[in-house]
Amino acid sequence: MSKMRYSRRTVLKGGAAVAAASTLAAPMVWAQEIKDITLRQFGTGVSNLNDVATKVKEDLGFNLEMTALDSDSVTQRAATQPDSFDVADIEYWICKKVWPTGNLQAMDTSKIANYDKIVGTFRSGKLTPESVIAQGTAPHTVGFVEGPGGKTFADNETGWMTLIPTIYNADTLGIRPDLIGRPIESWTELLNPEFKGKASILDISSIGIMDMAMVCEAMGEIQYGDKGNMTKEEIDKTFAIFTEAKQNGQFRAFWKSFDESVNLMASGEVVIQSMWSPAITAVKSRGIPCVYQPLKEGYRSWGGGLGLSSSLSGMELDAAYEYINWYLSGWVGGYLMRQGYYSAVPETSKEFMTANEWGYWFEGKPATDVITSPTGDQLAKAGDVRDGGSFTERMGAVACWNSVMDENQYMVRKWNEFIAA
Amino acid sequence: MGKSRDIIAYLQAAPLMAVLLAFLVVPIGMIVVVSFWGATEFSIYPAFQFDNYAFLFGSPVTYKVFFATFKYAFITWIFTLSIGFTVAYFLAFHVRTQAMQTALFLLCTIPFLTSNIIRMISWIPFLGRNGIANQTLISWGLIDEPLEWLLYSDFSVILAFVHLYTLFMVVPIFNTMMRIDKSLIEAAYDNGATGLQTLWHVIVPLTKPGIMIGTIFVVTLVMGDFITVRFMSGSQKANVGRLISNDIALLQYPSAAATAVVLLCTVLIVIGVLLRFVNIRKEL
Q: N or C: which end of chain A has fewer CB within 10 A?
């Protein structure tokens, strides 16, 4: 298959371009041909932004085609259609699932200019030297392989990275403070009978199970060995608690897509639920109060990165490295941070943010002026402080990472039963 | 002579045969084959094992979900049939001019010019806790608290099904009703039959093929659906289609294929039973 695609492109560009790519390594020289290159990227909606594609064309000269899909479809595509993409924008737990298929190739970190500036979470696993590594599929555990072609993950920085981290955040529950009217401090509140018929969780098994685990552990019902890698008994107990809650009518609905979560919250169908940070932003931008509530048990975190298709080679591969270096150089980071995510190389992003934005989003300081999203919606006014505080407070309080478990198939079947219960 | 005519007949049937083979028989054959395969986290491998079926028939969830699927199909059928029959009856026997009949019939189809999903989703803000329906009922003083069961319940699922599929009942019933010889009805009245007797003993038997075609449409559509159940129940209810779609989303193709095969057999059995009641081909 990859041969076929290559020959199609060869025809499109004329044989000369390919010959040039194989002999000339210096990027400047292929300035002419680069205009014809199109990198096809797919991933979840969070970072597949058209603004990024436009900026790539402007700064680097080549085309970036983006496809946004939900997490399940992303996994499916990365695992089954390696020739349908050049760059995969996937989460670390997806990487754990699809890396063994051999559809992605490891990246040489010596070609990544800002590698040394990447946040410790993605390299040694420690945000600060004192940090305790959270449970689940922590990014550094699936971030490296022994060398090109390596199929198993390495436990140290080998110089060959599976994904170049681009975007990550710490997730918690979203609440409607106006409809709840009292402080919310713990994950246990999700199953509090006070919110009967007004709670929701997400119907994506690999993430939903983690939110469930946070709740069960906070309730003191279950002590997990590792929430990110549960035993069958732990899975059974977790589902037993949630099935009972479901049958008692605790949940109004489950959501699968971003928009559904926004609508549930904005319409008041739900007052407390699993949520993603831009969804909070979307609810707020409609003038409805919504808080991304920090909870005492900590956050459930996730991280995404760019992976390269194993069929990429020659000039396209060079272009992909160029693109990744550009990605970490600050503009995208600034753009994502102004949406409430974090960039893997925060210090380069700082140059693309105002002091007010940097203070609000990264340092957890009160805003000195109005904070707007990259698309111009007002998100906060002067004096507001970000929910959860600074980068180190939020990312330092991660309790577990999104993950896939050894008992994943069993968990998925249980999840199906839970939905049908 | 006879032989060459045979060959010509085969050749004439060949294009249709090829299309059916390529787009119906082969895909279904593939699904059956894959249903015996095994799956890992991220790939499927050829095998001949009964694991998928064993798990399917061994799980109480399967029976529950099949029961829910039949329940949706049956209740939807009752409602679409009674509404569809009434509408078709009105169009066929109460509207006198053909122009008016055509106009009213087209009117019935107007909502169906929009997409299925939009027609379904537009119910959500209407039925919600703070939706138009609840606000209206509260302002009329009929209820004090918003009705929770209007949305994300079996009620909303079935409401959406009835809304989506009633036309599939109206069209075939209307079609068969239009073919009923009016003199038969006059004869019934002349012989002293009441309106109800005429309806039950003349019109219903003669409309059976239409009812049956409509029934097959509705039952197969409802039994194969997954998106309506997902949206209208807020992912809280499941039918067989959702089991399959969940499996596919999680890359468990063999297990999805096994469920699909069982569903296919179930639907075929249902249709087989239905066809025992009415011989559609004979009556068309």
A: N
Taking the model in full, what pTM does it have?
A: 0.80
Instruction: Select the residue of B230, B237, B246 nearest A416 (Cβ to Cβ).
Output: B246
Answer for the pair B263, B240: CB distance below 8 angstroms, yes or no.
yes
pLDDT in tens, chain A (421 residues): 333 444 444 444 444 444 444 444 444 545 566 778 899 999 876 777 888 889 999 999 889 998 888 777 888 888 888 889 999 999 998 898 889 888 999 999 999 999 999 998 898 888 888 788 888 889 999 999 998 888 889 988 899 999 999 889 999 999 999 999 999 999 999 999 999 999 999 988 888 999 999 999 999 999 999 998 999 999 999 999 999 999 999 999 999 888 889 999 999 999 999 998 888 888 988 889 999 999 999 999 999 999 999 989 888 899 999 999 999 999 999 998 988 899 999 999 999 999 999 999 999 999 999 998 888 888 888 898 998 889 999 999 999 999 888 888 888 888 888 888 7
Q: Say whether residue A389 is in contact with chain B using an 8 A CB cutoff.
A: no
Phi, psi of B22 (to 5 degrees): -70, -35
Helix (H, G, I), strand (E, B) or coil at A108: strand
Whole-number Å distance between alpha carbons of B265 and B77: 20
Quick check: B61 and A417 CB within 8 A? yes
Instruction: Please say whether the beta carbons of A56 and A323 come within 8 A.
Output: yes
Residue A353 phi, psi dihedral angles, 5° rounding: -130, 155
Is A212:A333 a contact under the CB 8 Å cutoff?
Answer: no
- Strand, coil or helix: B119: helix
A173-297+390-420 matches A2-170+301-350 in CATH topology: yes
Cβ atoms of A419 and B246 within 8 Å: the answer is yes
Chain B residues whose CB is inside 8 A of the A73 CB are 249
Strand spans (E) along A32-163: 38-44, 63-69, 87-91, 104-105, 107-108, 135-136, 160-161
For the segment(s) A2-170+301-350, the CATH number from 3.40.190.10, 1.10.287.3510, 3.30.479.30, 3.40.1710.10 is 3.40.190.10
**Could you tell me which residues are beta bridge partners of residue A421?**
none
Domains of chain B: 62-283 (1.10.3720.10)
The DSSP symbol for A112 reads: -
The span from the CA of A262 to the CA of B69, in Å, is 29
Whether the complex's predicted ipTM surpasses the cut of 0.90: no
Residue of B nearest to A103 (CA): B42
Token readout for A254 is: 């489950």
Asked if the Cβ–Cβ distance from B246 to A100 is below 8 Å, we say no
User: Which residue of chain B is at minimal alpha-carbon distance from A76?
Assistant: B251
